Amino acid sequence: MWLNRACIGFAPPVAKRCRQVKPWGQFTAPTAIAAIVRIVEILRIVMSKMALFFGTQTGNTETIAGLIQQQLGGSAVVPLYDVADASPSDFADYDCLIIGCPTWNIGELQADWEGLYDDLDDVDFSGKKVAYFGVGDQVGYADNFQDAMGILEEKIAALGGQTVGYWPVEGYDFTDSKALRNGKFVGLALDEDNQSELTASRIETWATQLKSAFGL
Fold this sequence. Notes:
alpha/beta, Rossmann fold, 2 domains, three-stranded antiparallel sheet, 18% strand, disordered N terminus
């Protein structure tokens, strides 16, 4: 009974997780300690306040956003925001952010991110940890592979965001990118046109990296 009362006030998916822990009277001392540890983990997830914001033109980035969400624990841990329906105030609620954007046309932002770009100046990113992922075509657009990811990272970092989740350039074949910082991509670089078979494993590896960076 005490546990049900303790779970009141959580978001519904998190409250459901909390109530799945056995009533206190059913625990031995070791399992009671394990239950307390689990509750602390749940509270840490709640307090971390993480969300993923994505823009999509063809649906690929939205699909990838869903895969990243699954790797990080599902919708109870990482809500998804389509920036077509988001406002600058939505970013303020979260301490950890994941930003997803495909590079469109020749090194341009996806249309919804383009529309939101100037309004990002109204967001205080100070103290927020921000990870990025992008979708691009390293063969067809080798001179501006993942430029959109780099454009957003440059903007948000200048506004106080702390970039996490850098990604190595090994395994790609491109000429230039605005997403490069000190020899690495500012975030996870995905190429559904030429390396779709690597997407799942890359997401899994990157998600493990983010769990450490975000303290999950």
